Amino acid sequence: MKLFVDTGAFIALTDADDENHKDAAAFYRNAKEKGTRFVTTNFVVCETMNYLRARISHNIAVLFRENLKKSGFIEILTVTPSIEDAAFTIFKRYTDKDFSFTDCTSFSIMRSLKLKGAFAFDKHFEQFEGIGRMP
């Protein structure tokens, strides 16, 4: 099984003080044990690093990125121009939602990979058609 990882999940895994830290750590451990493969995007990594830098420290943001690359458990996909165009279509269409553009790129990638689930704490992942969020 392949699962998309969103910014909120990365933050919860990285920040022991985050309200979702325990749930995120338990879910991640369990999913890894079951052989789940994880995928994310360079946009999500960027968003996570910006958050960690602003809210925790530069060092934690650097460690996050270094550990992510070393882990080998999470594939980082690059948002291509065609994915970005599809994301913009989603962004324009959903006027009644407050999806960020990064969310829309995630939805677009998930759609292209036919992924139905996201490791996320963001309610937007359950608001977009055909996607569920875990835990």
Polypeptide structure, described:
The structure is a single chain. The chain is an alpha/beta fold and 135 residues long. The protein has a single domain, classed as 3-Layer(aba) Sandwich (Rossmann fold), CATH 3.40.50.1010. The protein has seven helices and five strands. Strand 4 (117-119), helix 7 and strand 5 form a beta-alpha-beta unit. The longest helix has 14 residues, at 42-55.
Secondary structure: elements and pairs:
Blueprint: E1 2-5, H1 7-14, H2 21-33, E2 37-41, H3 42-55, H4 58-71, E3 74-77, H5 81-93, H6 101-113, E4 117-119, H7 124-127, E5 132-134
Parallel strand pairs: 1-2, 1-4, 2-3, 4-5
Helix pairs in contact: 1-2, 1-3, 3-4, 5-6
Supply the key terms.
single chain, 135 residues, alpha/beta, Rossmann fold, 5-stranded parallel beta sheet, 14% strand, globular
Largest sheet, spatial ordering of strands: 3-2-1-4-5
Q: In the residues, how many domains can be counted?
A: 1
Instruction: Give the number of DSSP strands.
Output: 5
Q: Helicity, in percent?
A: 55-70%
Number of helices: 7
Provide the residue-averaged pLDDT.
96
Largest β sheet strand count, sense and barrel closure:
5 strands, parallel
Beta percentage is 5-15%
Stretches with pLDDT under 50, minimum 5 residues:
none
Q: In whole angstroms, how far apart are the ends?
A: 15 Å
CATH architecture: 3-Layer(aba) Sandwich
Envelope shape: globular
